[in-house]
Amino acid sequence: MGIPVFDIEAMEWVHPIAVGFTDGDNYFEFLKETPDTDVMWKFLEFVGKKFEGISLFAHNAGNYDNRFILDALVRHKQKIRLEAGLGRVVWLDKDVSFEDSLLVVGTSLATLCKAFGVPRKLSWDHSTTVNIWELGSRLDSFRTYLKRDVMSLSMAMDAYCRSLIQNFGITPSATLSLTSVKAFNKNFFPVSGIKANEAFEPYIRAATYGGRNEVYKRFGEGLYLYDIRSMFISCYDSPIPIGEMHWRKPSMEYGSLAEAYVEVPKDKNIGPLPYKWYGRLIFPVGQFTGWWDMVELRKAEAEGTKIKLLRQLDCEELPVLKEFGDYVSHLRYSSTVELGRLWKLMGIRLSGKFGQHRWRTEIVHSDDIEDFTGFTPMDASEVYHEKSVYLKGNKAPYVRPAVAMRIRAESRVRHLTFLLKSDPYYCDTDSVYTTTQLPIGEAGGELQLTGLAKRAYFVRGKLYGYVDHNGNLKQRAAGFRDFRLTEYDFQQLLAGKDIEYLTRPIGKWKAILNEQGVNLDEIPRKAKGGDSIENRITDGMVTHPICLPITEKRKVKK
Q1: Staple 296 to which of 15, 134, 286, 409, CB 3.0 to 4.6 Å?
Q2: Model confidence pLDDT, tens digit, residues 493-527
Q3: Sequential DSSP letters for 68-137
């Protein structure tokens, strides 16, 4: 037995030539055998006739497979409903749902298969995919590849569902985040017991910030590279704001969040408080006003910041996430590495789901729209339109932003504690790169040593490289994964030189650019050097926090 699954193969990622499908027991195949064959409708007609009411999955369907499904259903004038963007396409007349398994599990098919011991997908060079009648002797290999793709996902999804039933007594929902909340709600604490506090949401959102990502020194030797184990889930032992919020007389000893005027000493190298400044997240020194979680304000005061509370909100707080966090951590560390990653993701997504915004994209058939104000057509025929809508009250039953506010604040406080114990060169949300040797441990919230660097080059946040003790260059370069920089390149970047190169796109970008007639062998890219770091001020090879308010003597580009 397996889970119903489909998979679409296409030339250049845009011209479908084959569909593989399993109902969980049997495998079916649909090929574009002639230029006139509508392989998508051939598949849909079969499913609609034989499997009315079925739900079937494809991995990454929202970004790929469901686009073909939508196109075919619109061409044949079928009525549909879209949910989670293209994450779920419902063929209304046949009650058939086409869903994205990537949203359900939150990880790649390769990782999912390895986690549950399922035969992994086979390899196929998609750049060599041609029409079915042109495949010749490679047709059997192509069909074998397609069938393995389908059956591997079917078996892996079945194992995943069984695992959720065994451990939480639930089946998966449309997304991993929703599944996580469902597990929490059923087994640990009712979500209804956490007040939404919608009337106070603007203040809660104002006190909610992301993680710290800063460069302190741009070049270093002999660095220890640390990560914090289960950073967010380890913070689930914190008391969480769960009650009805109310205004109270400001006090540093009480309260859940507050608006405050703060003075951070200008000689601090690491600012203790996050601040949103011209669309960027900084951790400044100086004088400024904002909203913060009281956990973070108390930490800042302990580190020498002067604080004047202006307004304060308070409510009942309890550590209601602790049991869930402990259980998910037990599942993670008692499983294989790959299965452990799934449980880690499930744990993290809980607070993420609570922190989601109330704005959603609604996609509606034109026949169901009386007033087209605010709607934008999605297709050339203007059959389907989308509009952003605000979900009030019980229409967004799992929006509890104070939960995400507290977990994020607590994680930044614990991260800051490690930074202050070291001589840091770089940090990301849950990492500390330093020349200081720090204690490590096996428990959640403790440091683990992930590597040693002979030399390290920190160009800016999420763009750095280091040479390990075996002489290998390790690169972390968001936006440049398609190109491998050399150590000399990193030296040039720190010296202010730009690195120019040509690259080849992959995946959907390859198809899009190919349709536009772009020479795929000669797409110019550039990694910019210089001393521009958006959230710190550079001074040679070291940096300093931005000082607020900005003065003429210390201007920073906004």
Answers
A1: 409
A2: 999 998 887 665 544 445 444 544 545 555 667 78
A3: HHHHHHHHTT--EEEETTTTEEEETTTTEEEEEHHHHH-S-HHHHHHHTTPPPPPP--GGG---GGG-GG
Distance between CA atoms of residues 319 and 95, nearest Å: 42
Residue by residue, DSSP assigns 319-356 as -TTHHHHHHHHHHHHTS-HHHHHHHHHHHHHHHHHHT-
What predicted TM-score, i.e. pTM, was given to this entire model?
0.88
What are the phi and psi torsion angles at 343 (to 5°)?
A: -70, -35
Amino acid at 180: S
| Length of the chain counted residue by residue | 558
Q: Are 172 and 179 in contact (CB under 8 A)?
A: yes
Please provide the distance, in angstroms rounded to a whole number, between the alpha carbons at the two ends of the chain: 58
Residue 480 pLDDT: 66
User: Do 224 and 437 touch, CB atoms closer than 8 A?
Assistant: yes
The answer to whether 426 touches 438, Cβ cutoff 8 Å, is no
pLDDT in tens, 438-458: 999 999 999 999 999 999 999
Coil, strand, or helix at residue 272?
coil
Q: Is the dihedral of CA 227, 233, 239, 242 positive or negative?
A: positive
Task: Identify the CA nearest to 176 among candidates 23, 414, 351.
Answer: 351
pLDDT tens readout for residues 251-308? 999 999 999 999 999 999 999 999 999 999 999 999 999 999 999 999 999 999 999 9
Give whole-number Cα distances, 242 to 257, 277, 357, 393, 404, in Å. 13, 29, 18, 16, 12
Query: Confidence band (pLDDT; 50, 70, 90) for 1?
Result: low
Residue 392 near residue 199, CB atoms below 8 Å: no
- Give the DSSP H/E element, type plus range, for residue 186: helix 176-187
Q: What is the pLDDT of residue 368?
A: 78
CA–CA distance, 550 with 323 (Å, rounded to integer): 45
Which domains are delineated in the chain?
5-174 (3.30.420.10), 175-358+396-461+541-551 (no CATH)
What's the burial of 367, exposed, middle or buried (CB within 10 Å: 0-12/13-18/19+)? exposed
The tokens describing 160, both together, are 């995943």
CA 493 to chain centre: 28
Please report where in the chains the tokens 């399922």 appear, as a residue. 118
